[in-house]
Amino acid sequence: MSHITPTAATFTELALHPKLLEALSGQGYTAPTPIQAQAIPLLLTGRDLLGLAQTGTGKTAAFLLPILHRLAAHRKPAPPRCANVLILAPTRELASQIDQSIAAYGQGLGMSHTVVFGGVSQMHQVKAMARGVDFLVATPGRLLDLISQHHIDLGNTHVLVLDEADQMLDMGFVKPIRQAVAMMPVERQTLLFSATMPPAIASLAASLLRNPVRVEVTPPATTVDRIGQSVMFVDSGNKLTLLKHLVKSDKVSRAIVFTLTKSTANKVAEALTDAGANAEAIHGNKSQGQRERALAGFKAGHVRVLVATDLASRGIDVDDVSHVFNYDMPNLPESYVHRIGRTARAGRDGLAVSLCEPEHRAWLAGIERVIGQAVPVSTDHPYHSEAARLSTMRPPVMGGQRNGGGGRNQPPARPQQGRPQQHQQRRPR
Ligand code: AMP
Question: How many CB atoms lie within 10 A of CB 1?
Fold first, then answer.
């Protein structure tokens, strides 16, 4: 595996297909982001790639542009039910966004593409696959369903992208991923993107990638410098009042509030709306239509606060989020990094405020170890709890299973199950 340095300062230097250059200027992109500058030249040569990058870095274009370029040069229509390129993503939101990006970047190339995910009828998905497509974007569970019903055949898929692989593993998708890969040709180009590199990802990468180049941008452990972080210690009974107090500020133009459970997300969204803040909850129990409406409202600005569980929030691509509030502390350091990365995107500044109750104090300590810094304490609010700051209470044992089924939006139970020492063992990088 080799490390590489940025090469190109402009898209023209990357020698991409003229139709791609047109699409990029249509999108208003003037220069490649660091991951694009690093990855695109290598991917154009057909290399496998291990990309360590979060959303917000431009990673989607980093993999789509070279794949589109190569496909345009050696185009073979996919046979019925087949796809030339398969992109796997953990959530329907992210899968849909990738599909939209294919449409945006590939508009002049006439590529066919479709997206399949669970929670909706498969009828249209089956129909879209019947003729074969250039690009298939899928969540792993629904992909396997459709393969087992013989609606999809991966025997002609020569390019595979695994996006947000760490999240797919957390959701219990490792088996469907391996099953899908086993049906693909051995001669293929494989790309794996992940925001973090726990051992399970390293071993998946080692088994799927051949002599990959490794590209790393904004290592998650250092977090994004532009995010102003703070923690407020508060007793659990005061958290909702404190959050309402914070959200009232007119500096909060667009905020995401994170909760650990779906029921808390509902409760918080209702309380904020009652307090006049126009909030919507998004989580796995909401229908696809409800989630899409909430996201569209958030993007358009009618919804000022989106209240989300960790998994539901993945891939939300909204650039000007002024604040991230951790209503519940995340029980995994990686989730903290993902959550706060929702703000300060696209060069803007952002604030991440965490409300920490006594029994989550140990989680905060684990996060601080991983990010390699203490989160500054803010006592500038009416509900400061010194008891919470000094608490030595053990974190609660979370219920729920790590699987791809109905419990997907339950908080991952990792600290108590498979890897009990996770918080303690991770060293700041
Ligand atoms: P991603 O990391 O793929 O989720 O992309 C994050 C955001 O950056 C998306 O809104 C993209 O449209 C945008 N983006 C990607 N590449 C560029 C670029 N070269 N210049 C400006 N914006 C970009």
Answer: 11
Buried b (16+ CB within 10 A) or exposed e, 261-281: bbebbbbbbebbbebebebbb
Residue nearest (by alpha carbon) to ligand 1 atom 19: 32
At 372, the amino acid letter reads: G
CA distance 12 to 31: 9
CA of 307 to the centre of ligand 1 (A): 24
List, for residues 30-50, the tens digit of each pLDDT value.
888 889 999 999 999 999 999
Mean pLDDT of 58-68: 96
pLDDT at 106 over 80: yes
Q: Which two tokens stand for residue 357?
A: 């109750």
Residue of the CA atom closest to atom 6 of ligand 1: 56
Shortest-distance atom of ligand 1 to CA 27:
12
Nearest atom in ligand 1 to the alpha carbon of residue 33 is 19
CATH homologous superfamily for the domain 227-423:
P-loop containing nucleotide triphosphate hydrolases (3.40.50.300)
Domain 2-216: give its CATH code.
3.40.50.300
Find the 29 Cα to ligand 1 centroid distance in Å.
8
